[in-house]
């Protein structure tokens, strides 16, 4: 039986695994597709100890650090989790199942999809959710970002490295992001911020050719673009936790206390799936470490 099972192979999960390894907890991590959201960003300038590093490299450092301890990695998704009559938990994948004394949900979040007409039809045919993954295809082209927070700011800077013009279509009256990123956006001559505007329809034949707006911009309600990148937030991947009766809030985030404990004894949550308001890698890593330590204390008391 494992002491500590982590569901989620993003930075939060691997930070928890690193610390659990140090605490000699018999640890298993179910990674799904490892890396999480941080590997979709080109640069991270706000992680203490690294002035400037790519999201991929930063994640790989955390993963490598965790791997320097004895942990078991399962490169599959956890498909179910239930408690058993031994007071433990059974985590199942499509292939096998594993028993554990404690569980950490570090399942993160997925991109919130845009739902205007045409958006689903043109997904990957001009509608994208990751500038780092798909932005290179728009070298010398005109693109738009839908969104108004820090992710939209960062995605626009990434796209501006290749695209000729990047419109940010922001529904609010200003771009809300880290001030340093907002300043970079305003200083970038390729980026045009358009505020108080919403897309209402995606237009095209085979691929995206434009977007219809809810008010005219520069004399037209149709903005001609070849690509549209969506950065309108994320949805917590918390469904699995319901199988254990874990409490979620109205945003479907898992409710935790300051020790990352959920309402279910021996079950923790950390990172973007939790109800902590500031979704950043440093917060997820810290919460992951707290969960590992809390599980360690819980198990020590149970002995
Ligand atoms: C464009 C962009 C830029 C960003 N820039 C920054 C930045 O500069 N600085 C910063 O600190 N943060 C940044 N962030 C936020 C940061 O990426 C997240 O806060 C961080 O990735 C959260 O990590 P996590 O491990 O909690 O969740 P995630 O990164 O979402 O990872 C969750 C992991 O769990 C796995 N998973 C899900 N369900 C299961 C399952 N059932 N079984 C097994 N595995 C599962 C997923 O495959 C994934 O690997 C940015 C985010 C975006 C989108």
UniProtKB/TrEMBL annotation:
Coiled-coil ranges from the UniProt annotation: none
Domain FAD/NAD(P)-binding residue range list: 2-290
UniProt signal peptide: none
GO molecular function terms noted in the UniProt entry: oxidoreductase activity
Domain of life of the native organism: Bacteria
PANTHER family per record: THIOREDOXIN REDUCTASE 1-RELATED-RELATED
Protein name, as recorded: FAD/NAD(P)-binding domain-containing protein
Native organism taxonomy: Bacteria, Candidatus Jacksoniibacteriota
């Amino acid at each position: 039986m494992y002491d500590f099972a982590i569901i989620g192979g993003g930075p939060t999960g691997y930070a928890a695994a690193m610390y659990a390894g140090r605490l000699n907890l018999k640890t298993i991590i179910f990674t799904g597709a490892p890396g999480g959201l941080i590997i979709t960003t080109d640069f991270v300038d706000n992680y203490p100890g690294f002035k400037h590093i790519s999201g991929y490299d930063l994640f790989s450092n955390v993963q490598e650090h965790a791997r320097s301890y004895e942990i078991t990695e399962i490169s599959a998704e956890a498909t179910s989790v239930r408690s058993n009559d031994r007071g433990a938990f059974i985590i199942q994948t499509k292939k096998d199942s594993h028993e554990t004394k404690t569980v950490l949900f570090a399942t993160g979040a997925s991109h919130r999809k845009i739902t205007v007409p045409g958006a689903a039809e043109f997904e990957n045919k001009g509608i994208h959710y990751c500038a780092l993954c798909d932005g290179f295809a728009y070298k010398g082209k005109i693109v738009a970002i839908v969104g108004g927070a820090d992710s939209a700011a960062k995605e626009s800077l990434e796209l501006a490295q290749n695209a000729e013009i990047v419109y940010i279509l922001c529904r609010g009256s200003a771009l809300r992001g880290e001030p340093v990123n907002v300043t970079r956006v305003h200083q970038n001559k390729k980026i045009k911020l358009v505020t108080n505007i919403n897309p209402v329809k995606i237009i095209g034949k085979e691929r995206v050719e434009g977007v219809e707006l809810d008010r005219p911009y520069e004399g037209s309600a149709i903005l001609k673009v070849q690509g549209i990148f969506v950065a309108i937030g994320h949805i917590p991947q918390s469904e699995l936790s319901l199988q254990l009766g874990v409490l979620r809030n109205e945003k479907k985030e898992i409710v935790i206390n300051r020790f990352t404990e959920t309402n279910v004894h021996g079950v923790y949550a950390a990172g973007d799936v939790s109800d902590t308001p500031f979704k950043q890698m440093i917060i997820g890593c810290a919460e992951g470490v707290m969960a590992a330590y809390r599980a360690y204390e819980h198990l020590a008391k149970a002995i």
